[in-house]
Amino acid sequence: MSESRLAFPACVIVGKHRLTAEDIALLRKHTFPEGIRTSDHVVVMLALNNSCPEKCAEWNTFFVEQLAGFIVDYTYPQGSLDEINVAWIMRMFTTDGVVNSALELELILHVMELSAHVPDELRALALDQLRLALGEDVGGYKLTRATDRKSITRQDVDYLMRVLRSVSEGGVIGVSPIEYGVLQRIDAVTQPGANHQRWGEIMASIELRDYAQPRRSRWLRIIDEEPVVAAAVA
């Protein structure tokens, strides 16, 4: 993406090595005075995130909250997700199923927390990041783990329950076949005797749903994918 397409102050900030709190204040005031509201705004956010190697904590919070709010609240179906949103998320923030950065994984998790409906495929993607960390030593979640142990830790349990909380009720975790398949693959790559005891409790609480979640198709894609994709790969 050419910097000439960015207005001030983004055109100046995009060339910096580190995003600072002062940069975030300028962006809030001049570039996004009402927050992220359009696909053009998404282009700017992704260009900034991809071009500046170092980011302050304020940028991480701003990136996650603003993009998650846009995806959930300012694209159809507002307040929820459908298969088109999920396909866009996977296209933008994964490579061959791997969420490459901890920041992008946090964005996906926050999107799931904000949405009234989360398609099975997105929950399965989030669960699979644990398998990738344990079995293949790759991905954004691997970068956040406090240990390289090939067994389920308390941190991993907390991550799993963050992903599964919306389908957990009354001691039962209702999952789809695609999610159950990922959980089985996680179990297969761990060292059973070394796993945290909560892992066994989680697996014992799993109940396969005997119905499919309704598909939420729509005719019109609200997000203009092409310029956003161009920004992401620039």
Automatic annotation (TrEMBL):
Highest taxon above the source species: Bacteria
Protein's recorded name: Uncharacterized protein
Source species: Rhizobium mesosinicum
